[in-house]
Amino acid sequence: DDDDDIPQLSSHALAALQEFYLEQQQREGMKTSQGFNQYSLGSIEEDWQLSQFWYSDETASCLAKEAVVAAGKGGRIACVSAPSVYQKLKEQDGKDFSVCILEYDRRFSVYGEEFIFYDYNHPLNLPENLLPHSFDIVIADPPYLSEECLQKTAETIKYLTKGKVLLCTGAIMEEQAMKHLGVKMCKFIPKHSRNLANEFRCYVNYASGLN
């Protein structure tokens, strides 16, 4: 019988696999039945291999509101390696501001023209139509807690912003954040959907609502 050579899963492995597929189908079903919003937090799951750690819903909302206020009516907001803030901004369906996302993870290309592929190793390798100093505020969360990553991301931030910067990074980066961007630590403490070992903080260079 030709079937004799086909490897068979144990009943335990088969049950686990079926359970996995069932959960996956239920998740997909929930997305469909709820008219799933592609911009909602969790619509794209974090990838730890890309050093991605999404903010909690509360933190993402708080940072998005701060960005809108800081940008002002008709303002432009750039999210650099901060996709969960971008998603919260899009949930608001705001007509008084525009936003774009600069991100290494090409899964975010589903957001169309607002997605700009970004590699911090090449901080000024940006599209020609992304004009210098064309954003009222830049919110950034460098993917790694290293001075090299912060310094290169800072080049991008300084190119994009008219002046206002909202940086989220580790508390241990306070001195480097001041050195490269002139930003100071806020009282507001950002939280992530999964607890991180490193303490995270927000830094700004303007009078913000995060203090």
TrEMBL record:
Location of this chain's protein in the cell: Cytoplasm
Cross-referenced InterPro entries: DNA_methylase_N6_adenine_CS, Efm5/EEF1AKMT1, Mlase_EEF1AKMT1/ZCCHC4
Single GO term (MF): nucleic acid binding
PROSITE patterns, alphabetized: N6_MTASE
Cellular-component GO terms for this entry: cytoplasm
Assigned keywords, A-Z: Cytoplasm, Methyltransferase, Transferase
Catalytic activity reported: L-lysyl-[protein] + 3 S-adenosyl-L-methionine = N(6),N(6),N(6)-trimethyl-L-lysyl-[protein] + 3 S-adenosyl-L-homocysteine + 3 H(+)
Protein name stated in the entry: EFMT1 methyltransferase
Organism (species): Zapornia atra (Henderson crake)
